[in-house]
Amino acid sequence: MRMEDLDPDRCRPVYAEAALDELRWLGIRWQEGPEKGGPFAPYVQSKRRAIYLEAWRKLLRTGRLFPCRCSRKDLATALAAPHERAQSASGGGKLGSDDDDSDDEPLYPGTCRLFMGGTPQLPGPTASEFEDPAGSNWRFRVPDGEVVEFVDLNLGPQRFVAGEDFGDFVVWRRDNIPSYQLACVADDAAMGITEVVRGADLLKSTARQILLFRALGIEPPAWFHCRLVVDHNGRRLAKRHDALSLRVLRQRGLTPMNILAAELPVEE
Q: pTM of the entire structure?
């Protein structure tokens, strides 16, 4: 059991304890975890910063990262250009939504890509100037055209093309927090994870993470992506569906078997 609690705005002790309680209620047990300890402790990501910094520095030294100073407004303006609108209409730069069954995001327009790495340098920072990632969004420079293929143990063969299906993605945020992508890869490697089971909405994240595994010289785990639980309209459940939260369903008398069998009540 690994508690992924990096986002201070969304992760609070009361939420963490509720998550552990609901997993126990579902009958899920673990041999290692935050309250049990184990050979790969600590099992709370907020206490594993040194591991993420080591991965960031290795990627930086090998020219895989560049600092991005673009604000959300800058990216929105760039993506509003005519050629980007056309790309968005074709699906290449689609913004994800709560009803979207993917973890898609707009293709990064490459504004800050020439700062560092194996490309000609613009006047500006070089890798030797950076000791700490704070203050910039650090993006992973995807190898354009590189094919990422893997056989999902549930959904079968998957294929993505870097630079087409997804662009340069953030691995460290300007508020000095490592991204989900980097933290999961570093932890999976450090903890010896051999199989990752998660929702089908993260298939594209898996492709990104495979690139990180490759860049770090680490063998990736096996992957099993589950189809998402949806409501009676076929929409994926989101945080706004409080009526279908485990807390509410428990209060309404549903059993763990009802939940595991996806026997959910129809919302009024």
A: 0.82
pLDDT in tens, 29-68: 999 999 999 999 999 999 999 999 999 999 999 999 999 9
Helix 49-61 vs helix 180-190: crossing angle, to nearest 10: 100
SS3 77: helix
- The verdict on whether omega for the bond into residue 256 sits within 30 degrees of 0, i.e. cis, is no
pLDDT tens by residue, 79-122? 675 554 444 433 333 333 333 334 667 889 888 987 665 443 34
User: Taking Cα atoms as reference points, which of 221, 173, 195, 201 lies closest to residue 70?
Assistant: 173
Which residue type is seen at 176?
N
Q: How far apart are CA 2 and CA 42, in angstroms?
A: 9
Contact, 121 vs 46, CB < 8 A? Answer: no
Q: What are phi and psi of 27, to 5 degrees?
A: 90, 10
